[in-house]
Amino acid sequence: MNPEIVLIKGTFAFYSVAALLALCYLFSKQERLSLWMLRLMGIGLALHLASFGFRLHAFWQIPENRFFLPINSFFGALSYLALAVAAVFFVIEREYRLGILGAFVLPWTAIGVGAAVIFADPAIAGLVPALQSYWINIHPMVLMTAYAAFGNAFGVGLALLIQEHQIKSRKPSELCYRLPSIEDLDNLNYKIIVAAFPTLTVGILMGGVWAYNAWGRFWGWDAKETWSLITALIYAGYLHMRFVKGLRGRKAVYVSMVGFASVLFTFVGVNFLSELHGYLSNE
Amino acid sequence: MNEMIPVELVGFSHRSASSRARERLAALGVESVYARLRSVGFEEAVVLATCNRFEVYLGRPESSPGARRALSELEDMAGSELAEQAYLFSGPRAVRHLFEVAAGLDSLVVGETEIMGQVKGAYEAARALGMTGRTSNVLFQRALFVGKKVRNDTKISAGQTSVASVAVQLAHRIFGDLSQSSVLILGAGAMAELTATHLSSSKVMRLSIANRTWERAVELAGRFSARPLRWEDFPSALVEADIVVASTGSPEPIVTRAMVVELMRRRSGRSLFLIDIAMPRDVEESVHGLEHVYLYRLEDLEGIVADNLRNRGGEVERARALVHEKAAEFCAGDRREFAGQAAELRHSEAL
Fold first, then answer.
1. Total structural domains in chain A?
2. Gap from B299 CA to chain A (nearest CA, Å)
3. Short-list A255, A234, A142, A144, CA closest to A189
């Protein structure tokens, strides 16, 4: 059996159990749950990297693919996205020690890898000439790292909505005392988006440069291009409202969640519309 | 054969003794109590003296004068009849009592954690005086372990049970660490003071106190190194306050919806936590509907306190069961241990 597939299935299992533990930790004070969540995530991440290593090895067996990253298929992209979500989570965890956020973020890693394992075709194909460019190692990676950060911000936003509701209700449950404060969640949500937005913008501009080199035009209103622009505009709107209008809390989170919905649509939905960015058709 | 754990106890607590009796005992001084006990033949004793209890745990009663003798020595030292206010336990009952004390189950505020340190301190003091032995070493170390376990495994120490501490806990859920938050207290009554005590122990950025009587504001402010405010200045101070505690005797609301709408416009989305513990109300109820405004009234806070107490109620039963289980385990385990020790002793005597 293909070791890459065995490893990615193992990754799926570890991510899923870690996400489950994170959800249990939300309702139980057992610190062990949080500890094991991090451990299992760590093991999952290691398996994930190993699986990626096997994929890279197989991918480079095809001469024209050599030294390019295997991200030209839906499988590769989903897998990388889940990896990035997990990695960004670890960065935030290191900084803020908010194990409780795992419940809102880690399910995305399990869903990402699960979707890759269940729905996507792991077959490896040669890169079409248009994709044989160093840009393939940069442009999609930068964008998907931004997406992963937005995924984490979405989790933080969800926690904020719950906390806001808890305190407005005047009957806070145990959950209220487990979650970080409203102001802390609001600031964290903002910080992540402030970091992710320029990343997204740079990723889109890189795509423009690549498009100019490959097809002789910077922008072509391809569905993916259009939707990524919409995503960027929504998050720009979030930052504008926050900076200029002082919009914070619940309503700000709604805007950022619309942004994340747009991210998901750009990443998944557009593949059925776009001709130039179709992972499924692998063209 | 009815072997007992060789422990006896004579004690006085807030449950059994008047505060006058407890004061008299506390005034004796722990060291002179040890000196007296030693002089009449006690070899192993631990004196636990806190403001709510005075207890003497005695080890190896078979070779000591016994708990009744200890009681009469205490009476003699205190110069008054105390027997009616004392409890005397021996064997497993004494073990169970010590475990309950260490777990905070016998405290005035059930589940308080200070008692652990006091039990530990008492044991260490006795050891330093050479008044501990095999029994008291094992017993007290186990008591501290059980006290810790009960607090870990049950929720007796969780959930705030006073209105002021619940309010502060909620403030933390809104603002996180309060070092960047400024607090405005309106009114200078007993409730205002209590809340100020709790908030100032959370190290807020700034504490301001406004009162209709300027002298009272100054007096209260002085106690918390707070800033006193003239009553007519409080509306302008509202804008920079994150937490407002209102407890004035005003017959009409002093913080109106119109005021809050106006000041929220200038706070650029930062949350505002209003605590209204006045009767009749100081803050117009409808402000709770505004974005980023959280108004808690006295009955909301009391509701949370009642919930916490109820939760704690069930936990107290669980904690007690756990303590009894651990005490029985200890007694069963040690009965064998002490039987072994006794056999060893006979063996060495035979030699």
1. 2
2. 10
3. A255
β-strand B206-211 against B182-186: which pairing, if any?
parallel
The residue assigned the tokens 């030699």 is B351
Whether B304 sits inside 8 A of A172 (CB atoms) is: yes
- In order of start, what are the domains of chain B with their CATH numbers? 7-153 (3.30.460.30), 163-304 (3.40.50.720)
| Distance between B296 CA and the closest CA of chain A, angstroms | 7
Among the three residues A127, A158, A182, which one is the final residue of a domain in this structure? A127
Indicate whether A15 and A89 sit together in one domain.
yes
Q: What is the distance of C-alpha A73 from the center of its chain?
A: 16
Answer yes or no: do A119 and A163 share one domain.
Answer: no
CB contact under 8 A, A250 and B291: yes
How large is the ipTM?
A: 0.88
Do the beta carbons of residue B271 and residue B175 sit within 8 Å?
Answer: yes
Cβ(B54)–Cβ(B22) under 8 Å? yes
Please name the member of B291, B303, B304 whose beta carbon is closest to the beta carbon of A249: B291
Which of A182, A188, A189, A250 to probe the B interface (max B CBs under 10 A)? A182
The strand pair at B182-186 and B243-246 is best described as: parallel
Are A121 and A54 in the same domain? Answer: yes
Nearest to residue A138, comparing CAs of A226, A229, A74, A202? A202
- Residues B46-99 have pLDDT tens digits of 999 987 899 999 987 677 888 999 999 999 999 989 999 999 999 899 999 999
Report the sign of the C-alpha dihedral through residues B236, B241, B246, B248, in that order. negative
Residue A184 tokens read as 């802390």
User: A181, B291: Cβ pair inside 8 Å?
Assistant: no
A48 plus A141 within the same structural domain: no
Cβ separation B169–A249 shorter than 8 A = no
Please report residues of B whose CB lies closer than 8 A to that of A168: 288, 294
* Between A1 and B335, residue with greater pLDDT: A1
Is the Cβ pair A252, B269 closer than 8 Å? yes
Domain residues for A70? 1-127
Residue from the list B174, B267, B291 with its beta carbon closest to the beta carbon of A181 = B174
| Residue positions of B annotated with a catalytic role | 51
**Predicted confidence band at A283 (pLDDT cuts at 50, 70, 90)?**
very low
| End residue of a domain, out of A71, A104, A127 | A127
Which pLDDT tens digit goes with each residue over A182-238?
999 999 999 999 999 999 999 999 999 999 998 899 998 888 889 999 999 999 999
Name chain B contacts of A170, Cβ cutoff 8 Å: 296, 300, 303
Q: Are residues A122 and A225 in the same domain?
A: no
CATH number assigned to the domain comprising residue A148: 1.20.120
